Amino acid sequence: MSALRVQIERIKEDLLALASIGRNEDDRGNYRMAFTDHDMAGKRWLQQRIEDAGLQASMDGAANVSGVLDGKDGGPRIFVGSHIDTVPCAGMLDGALGVVVGLECLRVLKESGTNLQRAIELIAFSDEEGRFGGTFGSESFTGLVNVERIESSVDLNGVRLFDAMQAHGLDPLKALDARRPAEEILAYLELHIEQGPVLDEQRLQVGIVDNITGLRSWSLKFAGEANHAGTTPMDYRKDAFMGLADFAHEIPRILEENGGEHSRATIGKAEILPGAPNSVPGNVEFSLDFRDPSPEKLDELSLAFQRALAAISRRRKLMFEFSVQGEIHPVDCDLNLVKILQFAADDLDLRSLNMLSGAAHDAQVVGRIAPMGMVFVPSQGGVSHSPAEWTAWEDVEAGANVMLQALQHLGTQPS
């Protein structure tokens, strides 16, 4: 067993310092959304911490921040990281924990004089949380972005990604140069909070992820006819909201008949138009997020949802339309990396579980071109994307030591 251990006090110090960047003192939430002033301040803070550790710091064209601990071999590198951008009113751990723990692992390896054969690179990806569609940094890293994506991406307020980057002195098209060839990536590892209740409820210390679920995100619209709420008889109405209500009630049936054990579907946003108390809704615009670890199940769900939308439209005398806002493919974690992470957890005598990730991560994007593995630590009460998000320090330390052992093992192996 490796004698190396992380210093939890340094992890605490870094997490608390990063959380102070973009914190709102009224609701205690973090507001470090991608390519805002606070996000860029967080990137500058991280670069300084990397340099303080005696490592090489850099930022690529997608504004991904990196720190490198050199190895003897000039071959493929090991990457470790996550993201430091947040959703609005976020907690302090989502994404940031993986970056801070990755930095601490590199510090420990450097300070111990570990004889690394392979370089290890810390990376903090841009816009994982989706201000401009999500996983922009890791998509740039893997060569999945193009000019159209860079120029057409906008946030919910109509701000263009192109303009947001330029406002901070960045050349958006330089994101095309952020690509790392697959042959240069030996492995990618990511530590993350679970963002769900499983580990916490079972009183486990770490989760070893073996699969990351796929995700499809749609924007939908039912179009009917706005009319007077008092003078329009019920059977004359073309009520768009009733179409949405019918569809929402169809979701459990569709998941039961066409999904699997891990299928999920959510309508997280809806807007009723014209939105007057005395008007029959003429239009309803809403979102649909559905997930499953099986590509085949995602296809079945997609077809079933479209059939339900069509049937409801006929019955309610409505029109419907939908557009695909995003699609992330399910990815299996690399079996060898799963074994290495599990061995580290067992070696540290930790209570662990092999598990699915129901949330999307940068690891999922990198896993399309290179071996990838993830470690989860418990989320108290299953809460995330909230100032109430929390993980006990002893669980943070446990997960960080699993990551340290895995990086040490991979980094010291001969080419």
UniProtKB/TrEMBL annotation:
Residues 214-313 form the Peptidase M20 dimerisation domain. Binds 2 Zn(2+) ions per subunit. Signal peptide: none annotated. The keyword Hydrolase applies. Keywords: Hydrolase, Metal-binding, Zinc. InterPro entries: Amidase_Cbmase, Bact_exopeptidase_dim_dom, Peptidase_M20, Peptidase_M20_dimer. GO terms for molecular function: hydrolase activity, acting on carbon-nitrogen (but not peptide) bonds, in linear amidines; metal ion binding. Its cofactor is Zn(2+). Zn(2+) 1 binds at residues 83, 94, 192. CDD domains: M20_bAS. Zn(2+) 2 binds at residues 94, 129, 385. Belongs to the peptidase M20 family. PANTHER family: ALLANTOATE AMIDOHYDROLASE, ALLANTOATE DEIMINASE-RELATED. This is Zn-dependent hydrolase.
